[in-house]
Amino acid sequence: MQSYLFVPGSNERIIKKALTSDADIVIIDLEDAVAEKEKENARQLLSTMGKEADLLQKSVCVRINSIDTVHWRYDLEAVCKSNFKNIMLPKCESAEDIKQLVHFIEQNSIKNYLIIPLIESAKGVLNAYEIAASHESIQRLAFGAVDYSLDIGATPSKKETELLFAKSMLINSSAAAGIESPIDCPYIDFNNEEGFIESVKNAKTLGMQAKLLIHPKQIELLHKLYMPSEEEIELSKAIVQSFEEALSNGKAAVAYHGRMIDYPVYEQAKRIISRQSTIGIE
Length: 282
Known about the structure:
The protein is of the alpha/beta class. It folds into two domains: about 5-225, TIM Barrel, CATH 3.20.20; about 230-280, no CATH class. It has twelve helices and ten strands. The chain has an eight-stranded parallel sheet with strand order 6-5-4-3-2-1-8-7. It has a two-stranded antiparallel ribbon with strand order 9-10. Helix 2 (about 40-55) packs parallel to helix 3. The longest helix has 19 residues, at about 230-250. The radius of gyration is 20 Å and the shape is globular.
């Protein structure tokens, strides 16, 4: 799963359109994208959208309101009734937040659910490993840059250097907890293709393999950016072949075109080939 597309939970037309898009997962947002007076209407709409998503066989996640609001329990009740299984918890700051969420879900006898904690604060970043390792239902972490920048008093920049520490913390915490790599923050200037490309490439270099999106036009470009290039694939295949030949001769290191190949390099090459297979590149 690479592309996670946000849609406002109160807009039936936009949700239906998103469900027919190429996004890997559609996130129906009950939080920031929905005005206070529209919260209940959005919850009522979930049931209809659940049937629509089933018909289209589309993966859906619901972003509920944060635990420090009066809305989150009502949101979860609506999620449970709609039969959606993926839940995004915004402004998650501790394992205790996850504990409260899980307790409520299991009280409603919901099985096989998945949780995506959205980390949006300095406290959440510092507790990222604790959150990631807090429950088996944690699928992966996600990063919210706007609230995080506001929390730490950072000035948003084109190169996003103010986000480097937080992203690295989430990546390291996810790896240490044995879960999937985190989902990168949305790029809010959706008409700025050049800036979007740079943002995705920088996050990919760090180790992020998915991104939150706010516009359908970002989907196709994101998928292209995550595809391994032909050069990467061919080099990876050559590395795997050379190293396995070396292993068959009793060697655990071999030189290939001026570079030393050992187990970590070999495993990285296999990962690239595996990703190629997973996303269906011939």
